[in-house]
Amino acid sequence: AQTVTQSQPEMSVQEAETVTLSCTYDTSESDYYLFWYKQPPSRQMILVIRQEAYKQQNATENRFSVNFQKAAKSFSLKISDSQLGDAAMYFCAYRSAQNSNTGNQFYFGTGTSLTVIP
Amino acid sequence: ETGVTQTPRHLVMGMTNKKSLKCEQHLGHNAMYWYKQSAKKPLELMFVYNFKEQTENNSVPSRFSPECPNSSHLFLHLHTLQPEDSALYLCASSQVVRGGQYFGPGTRLTVT
Hints:
The complex is a heterodimer. Chain A is an all-beta fold. Chain A has strands at residues 3-5, 10-14, 19-21, 24-26, 32-39, 46-52, 60-61, 64-69, 74-79, 88-96, 106-108, 112-117. In chain A, the strands form three sheets. In chain A, strands 2, 5, 6, 10, 11 and 12 form a six-stranded mixed β-sheet that branches. Chain A is globular, with a radius of gyration of 14 Å. Chain B has strands spanning 4-7, 10-13, 18-25, 31-37, 44-50, 53-57, 64-70, 73-79, 87-95, 98-103, 107-111. In chain B, the strands form two sheets. In chain B, strands 2, 4, 5, 6, 9, 10 and 11 form a seven-stranded mixed β-sheet that branches. In chain B, a hairpin with a 2-residue loop joins β5 and β6. The termini of chain B are far apart. Chain A binds chain B through residues 33, 35, 37, 43-47, 50, 91, 93, 95-101, 103-106, 108-111, and chain B through 31, 33, 42-43, 45, 48, 50, 55-56, 90, 92, 94, 96-106.
């Protein structure tokens, strides 16, 4: 089974600064999806950004961007110009792109709790 | 309504009660999921349904019983739960084999 590792249980960043959250994964597949989810305290889990493994270009969504290193199996999330509303738990997730039941398995990391300091 | 909705948002039940959690998705997806999220623990996948057919049951105790009458609705029937079952129960939906999951707000369950 695939595994997703987030080695930073907690991170903090000064407001307006940039922070990078790390994620590594283990897979033997060549085609898959990677995601970052944000879960604010007592609030809904939201999809922040996604990356298709076949795309070499790193995905970006406004202040959020990823650094996808396929050979290294690394998928980090960069948050620029951090805002107080960015404070949340961030989860990295993997999904197979194969057309089988395994394609419906999402594998989540254990999360990184991000604190934004005013 | 849009997205994924869950009811109730909060539930307190005794160990002998029977209750049901409801999830509805308005995204046209064909896969639905139940997760359990406990404090200080990784997200635990419980059940997966593709096109109303259950494809995954991650060794979940029989006191949790899922039901998926159609691609838009998912239920989790609960009976004789234990205090350690207290957690946030999240429903999610996706397209089969592509794209991301979209989560509901969750049901905060407390078993007394």
